[in-house]
Design a protein that fits this description.
alpha/beta, Glutamine Phosphoribosylpyrophosphate, subunit 1, domain 1, Rossmann fold, seven-stranded antiparallel β-sheet, 19 helices, 25 strands, binds fructose -6-phosphate
Length: 600
């Protein structure tokens, strides 16, 4: 949600800010802006629309600056417009913001009482005004930021320029991510690593409560008591990993990266034929002590959690409940002795998942997180973490992020099953082998059939509604398939447990309504077949995504449960992608959405 970037150094920062913003655009893309220090003061150029529109504005008014901050927005307070775009200025303060100031209306009222007048409808402008007011009073950037932040409720990452402090950018965060970077030409800050990668791999994740002071040659971190130099870390990612690499879309690239992504999450934990999480500091005793799991996540990560719940209950015999993170704190499920909370997040920054994690910790529950982006809030704050190593996921709709979450959960199920004696070593070995080898191979095989799936997409592309049905594991996959289709193609898609459709929703089936039926599980396919007949006899156009030999089907792998699942998953992702492509949608940046939802 919103991307921020900053540079201060010895070179012209404008091209760097633009480059960083175009990498960050996936975090929000309804408006963009830059504030740059020039000889005449701080100049702001901002507009509604994408980075391309900002570049047109910059071409009309070329500027050069060695100290600049930039922002790409996902609107929360106020419609996307030129005036609501960041940066925002108040007095001697100009800033960009990612997050939400929840008490902004009280602060706004208070500031208005003292004569301040807002120009925009944003919460961000209020934050700028509060810092500016404190700056007038204290004349200290550090104290004014600290005082103002202590008044704000909510989440934020700010990059701040003070009019009379030349060549310096200040940064502070709470709840929203912010990384500081260092290179030979100067100092950088950004919302995520991918935006730093074109310039540097050295980074420092700013901790909550710290204020960074960046100048060309020096970066100081102040934690309220003392100032210190950052302890630099080196990212394992490369700038190429955040580029399209010859693919037309990031989403397509990420779908095609899945076989390798699965190997990356599994191989380090499968050096012997059996799962071993000791590299993640998780020993078999941990699984033995668990009496139940609560899985908590948002969106696709919840769907991955549902698939994981099937595996964990079946292979480890541990009861699992799956919860939507935004509900978890407000309707907390009862936790018996031995309950562990398993949080799943690709970005590691999703606000609701983070809040659920904090709630679980406050209740004294042990927490384990499955996270892709390293050094993120959820990874840092959980008691234990398992990284999925899928590399940067840029397309807003998750694919390899979801696939690696499912793979990690399957491996947890096997490891826990072995540790608890619910699985024999030979059964564990067969399952591990199938996960490490058959699953990536099944994805690779499905990827060769893009053309065939495109022809099925032709049957969906002109419809307003599509239904997905399945039973058991296939129902969990159907939920993800429907989400993928609706978010990128804007076709209304719903998933139903196959037996449930006739309890009401079947009334929506008319001549030609597409129904995609997922049947990868031999034990359940006869039952789902009856449900297929029910909708077919009412005129539905049925597309089978099936391990069985049948007409009108996308035939998926039938070697093992894991192979069938990942094969069908790939088919569903490609079906959504090809349908959106046929409809001419903006696949990597669907309307109203943004990657990494850092607001509740
Ligand atoms: C859908 C999608 C979202 C995310 C959800 C959680 O394609 O990407 O539903 O799965 O916002 O995000 P993370 O995993 O980053 O916590």
């Amino acid at each position: 949600m919103c991307g921020i970037i900053g540079y201060t150094g010895r070179e012209n920062g404008i091209p760097k800010i633009v480059r960083g913003l175009s990498v960050l655009e996936y975090r929000g893309y309804d408006s963009a802006g830059i504030a740059a220090r020039t000889e005449s003061g701080t100049e702001i150029i901002k507009c509604r629309g994408r980075i391309g529109t900002l570049c047109e504005r910059l071409a009309e008014t070329p500027i050069s600056s060695q100290t600049a901050i930039g922002h790409t927005r996902w609107a929360t307070h106020g419609v996307p417009s030129d005036v609501n775009a960041h940066p925002h200025r108040a007095g001697r303060v100009t800033l960009v913001h990612n997050g939400i100031i929840e008490n902004y209306s009280e602060l706004c009222e208070e500031l208005s009482g003292r004569g301040w007048r807002a120009v925009s409808e944003t919460d961000t402008e209020v934050a700028a005004a509060l810092i500016a007011e404190e700056y007038e009073r204290t004349d200290s950037p550090l104290i004014s930021i600290r005082n103002a932040c202590s008044r704000m409720v909510g989440s934020y990452a700010f990059a701040i320029i003070f009019e009379d402090v030349q060549g310096v950018i200040f940064a502070v965060r709470r709840g929203s991510p912010l990384l500081i970077g260092r290179s030979t030409d100067g100092s950088y800050l950004a919302s995520d690593m991918t935006a730093l990668l074109p310039f540097t791999r050295q980074y420092y994740p700013l901790a909550e409560g710290e204020i960074a002071c960046l100048s060309a040659d020096e970066i100081e971190i102040n934690n309220g008591a003392i100032s210190h130099s950052p302890t630099w870390q080196v990212s394992a990612l490369t700038a190429e990993s955040a580029q399209k690499g010859g693919y037309s879309h990031f989403m397509l690239k990420e779908i095609f990266e899945q076989p390798e992504a699965l190997r990356k999450v599994l191989s380090p934990r499968l050096r012997t034929p059996l799962p071993d999480f000791s590299g993640d500091s998780i020993e078999p005793d941990f699984w033995r002590g668990i009496t139940s799991f609560q899985i908590v996540a948002c969106g696709s990560a919840t769907h991955a959690g549902m698939v994981g719940a099937h595996f964990i209950e079946r292979y480890a015999r541990i009861p699992v409940t799956v919860h939507t993170a935004s509900e978890y704190r407000y309707s907390p499920p009862l936790a018996a002795e031995g309950t562990a909370v398993l949080l799943i997040s690709q970005s590691g920054e999703t606000a609701d998942t983070l809040a659920a994690l904090r709630y679980a910790r406050s209740q004294g529950l042990p927490t384990l997180a499955i996270v892709n982006a390293v050094e993120t809030s959820i990874a840092r704050e959980a008691d234990r973490r398992i990284y999925t190593y899928a590399g940067p996921e840029i397309a807003v709709a998750t694919t390899k992020g979801y696939a690696t979450q499912v793979a990690a959960l399957a491996l947890i199920a096997i490891a826990a099953g072995l540790a608890r004696g619910a699985l024999s070593a030979s059964a564990g070995e067969t399952l591990s082998n199938s996960l490490l080898h058959s699953a990536p191979d099944a994805i690779t095989e499905m990827l060769t059939r893009r053309g065939e799936i495109a022809s099925f997409a032709q049957r969906l592309k002109s419809h307003a509604h599509v239904f997905f049905i399945g039973r058991g594991l296939d129902y969990s996959l159907a939920l993800e398939a429907a989400l993928k289709l609706k978010e990128i193609s804007y076709i209304h898609a719903e998933a139903y447990a196959a037996g449930e459709l006739k309890h009401g929703t079947i009334s929506l089936i008319e001549q030609g309504t597409p129904v995609a039926a997922i049947t990868t599980l031999p034990a359940l396919s006869a039952k789902t077949e009856s449900n297929i007949r029910e909708v077919a006899s009412r005129g539905a156009d049925v597309i089978r995504i099936s391990a069985d030999e049948s007409e009108n089907a996308i035939r998926v792998a039938n070697g093992s449960e894991f192979a069938a699942f990942f094969s069908a998953m790939t088919a569903c992702q490609l079906l959504a992608f090809e349908t959106a492509l046929a409809r001419g949608c903006d696949i990597d940046k669907p309307r109203n959405l943004a990657k990494s939802v850092t607001v509740e």
